[in-house]
Each structure stands twice: as C-alpha cells, then as structure tokens.
Amino acid sequence: MASPSTFATEPKQSSAAEGALTNDQLDALRSAFVANPSHRMAQNAVTQTAIDDVALNRTVVTSMDHTFSHRLDNWPVTNQKKSGRCWMFAALNLFRADAMQRMNVEAFEFSQNHALFWDKLERANYFLEAIIRTAERPLDDRTVAFLLDRPLDDGGQWNMFINLVRKHGVVPKAVMPETQSSSETMHMNRRIVHKLRDGARTLRELRGNGAPMEAVRAAKRDIVAVIHRMLCIHLGTPPSRFDWQWNDKDRVFHRDGEMTPRAFADKYIDLPLDDYVCLVHDPRSTSPVGRTFTVEHLGNVVGGEPVKYLNVGIDVMKDAAMRTIMDGEPVWFGCDVGPMMRRDLGLWDAAMFDYEAIYGTTFSLDKASRLVYHQTKMTHAMLFTGVDVWHDRPRRWRVENSWGDENGQKGFFIMNDSWFDEYMFEVAVRRSYLPETLRNAIDQEPIVLPAWDPMGSLAR
C-alpha cells in the first residue's frame, strides 16, 4: 500500500493569479447575460437553430437574382468532390470554354486526374529539392519546419498550373478519368506525405554525414520513383499517347487520330498563356501597390515559371476582370471562400449574416488587419463567367464553382460586389487589361515573402 505522501493533496487556496478569471467576475458575467432580454432571445434561437439561419440577412437574399448583363456560360459545372483541386478545376474550366467552341460540342472536360498526377509528382520532387537546399539548417528552423509540416498539398496557383500544361500537356477526361483517390485525396496524400518525410530524413542524414551530392541526388531519384509508383497505384498511369475522336453537337464526326498530351494542349488550349498576369489585392502596409511579389518555396515544377503577383488596387482588379468578361473570356480567381457565404443558395455578400446583432458586438478588423491577424487568406479558386455592369461598374458577378450542381443555380453562384471588396484576392488576366502605367510593372524583380505568408495559402 502506498504511503500517504504519494497521493496528490488538495492545493491550498491562494490569491488569484494576476489575469485569472475570479468567481466575482464570472458571477457578474452570468448576471449581465441573464438580465439582457436580447441575449436571452438570441440564446433561445441559436440553441435550437443554426447560427447562419438565425443571422441570415433576408434583405440581401431577396435582392439577388441570377440575371447578368454579360454571361458566358452555357455548360454544366464540374465537381472536385473531396479534394483540394479547385485551382486545377478553375483553370481547366477556363480552357474548356474555348475548347468546346473549337470542337463544337455542348459538354467537355479536360482530365483533372491527369493534372493531379503530374502536380503530385512534380511537387514531391520540388519538396525534396527544398529539403536538400535546407539540409544544413536545424530541424526547428522555421522554414524547415514549414516544409516538413506541409510537404504536399492539393492546392495550387495559376502559375503552377501553367507549368503543368507546358511540361505535361492535357488530355480529355475520357482518356484519364477520375479514380477513388483523385476524388477523395486524403488517404493517398497521407501515404505520400509519410514517404516524403521518410525521404527528407534520408536526404538530411546523407548531407549531414558529408555524402557527395551525387549520392544525395541518387537517393532523391529513388524516393521520386517510389512516389511515382504510389501515384500510379492511386490515380492510374498517365497516357503518353492516345486516340481522339468525337461527334460534335451537329452529329458531325471528327477524328484527330493519335495525339500526345502536349499536342492536345497545343491544339485545344488556344490562349496566349505567356500574356497572363496574376493581380492580387494585398492591402497590408508592408505590400506596396505596383510591386511584384513571390512566396518562398511556393511552386511545383523545379525550373518552372515562378509564382509571381502584381499588387494592385481593388478597382484595378475589378476593371480588368469586368472587361475580360465583357470581351467574352471567363476569369480565373482566388478568394477566401468561407466568410459571408450562403452555400445552399449560392450567394456571397459582405452583409450576408448579421452576426453583430446576434452577439451584441462588433467585428472591426478590416481586410488588411484580417490578413495580419490570421483571420483571412486565399482558400479557394473559381471562375467568373458573368458580370452585371451598371454605369460602367460591376454590381455582381456570376461564379462557376466546382462543388457539383446541388447548390446555387445548378452549381453557379452569385457574388455581390461588396463581397469582392472584402474577400477577393487574386485574378489571372491578360496584361493588355492593365492600365498602361502597370503593364511593365509585372517585369520587376519580385519581393520575396516568407513561405508561411498568407499570399501563398491557396497552394496549401
């Protein structure tokens, strides 16, 4: 039997530590809440009903409808399912709009699985190269810790997708269709991340033991070979060649014959990819307007085009996107998708929910402060396919999402312009849509932001 001294004893009462909540304070908080009828009414409502249903601003909902002065889409939406491939879907949806016209078909999709395969393989290689470059740093170095924390994610950026198209081409969805793992990437990602961390240890130990670079590179090639094998098991093997033929919407038969993915991209992505620039709205005081930025360790293809942003005012971004749509081309964009969204209705508005009235408080962080204090970041990419213009100004935007057709208008959403101001961060447009004073600014050497900066969050 243990002696009495081995048992925990009741701590002696002492004066409250500075800053601790006291019983008097807790009693006062309870009394103040109970005494306020508005608080009691809110409690009764929210304990029985979802907060977003209680806080929904009906005036906003009834003021929005799916009519636009300029609308481009006449095709169904796609579905990324349980994956983070929004940036791929948005880019491929942009490309397919032009491809459908060229093929004269009512529906067509490029293979999102094909793009996913090559992105995963390239990013595995990109990560391992970063591990080699940082091998002399300690494991608790912030950059090394960042790399090991997120070796490989589903997200990505416009420039990263262009790298994939240029190097690996594209194929029709019928040639490399979805698999269970492409539509639900979590389990595949876990296994690949495990192998990449295993490989990171191997490479760091080789470097730490003074192994020649030839041996390190040989070890890296072995790791990449395993990742390639894992991807083939989960996603299938990408075709090096395939036959392509189709019937158009007038029932006319067409045959291209045998093609490579690169040749298919050259024929059916008839857009000047070199002309596109990524405009961002980063209102932080540390991010000057008119300057270019990149994010350290943000990319996928070693030696490929770096991710590069031009920071502009929100009105410049709006004008470029609006005029692009008015000229007949959809616009790829990145935003913080979650705040002030009514998903089932497919609506975004900056005043969609009156949380302040429910809670009896204010939420005062502006866009710049939300970035600084980790309250906002880019989380989703989609495609603008329409805009409602009034007196040369956009009122609302039509959005092609990639969440299937169950919400909104068969998967198409409405974004009020107030929401654009607060939660939009990036668009990819042709350089010609920039004001003349900014057209050459994209050629500047970019300011390098740290790997963990929120401007890189869409790739996570």
Percent helix range: 25-40%
What is the alpha-carbon Rg in Å? 26 Å
> What is the tally of beta strands?
14
Major sheet summary line: 12 strands, mixed
Count of individual helical segments: 16
The CATH class designation is Alpha Beta
Write a concise synopsis of the structure shown:
The chain is α+β, with helices and mostly antiparallel strands. It is built from 16 helices and 14 strands.
Describe this structure in words.
With 460 residues, the protein is α+β, with helices and mostly antiparallel strands. It has a single domain (70-101, 108-246, 255-459), classed as Cysteine proteinases (Cathepsin B, Chain A). It is built from 16 helices and 14 strands. Strands 1, 4, 5, 6, 7, 8, 9, 10, 11, 12, 13 and 14 form a twelve-stranded mixed β-sheet that branches. A two-stranded antiparallel sheet has the order 2-3. Helix 6 packs parallel to helix 10 (186-208) and helix 10 runs antiparallel to helix 11.
What is the element layout, followed by pairings?
Layout (H helix, E strand, L loop, with lengths): L22 H13 L1 H10 L4 H5 L2 H5 L7 E2 L14 H18 L8 H22 L8 H8 L8 H11 L11 H4 L2 H23 L4 H23 L6 E6 L5 E7 L1 H8 L7 E5 L11 E4 L13 E3 L2 H13 L4 E5 L5 E2 L4 E2 L6 H5 L7 H6 L7 E11 L2 E8 L11 E5 H7 E7 L16 E3 L11
Helix pairs in contact: 6-10, 6-11, 10-11
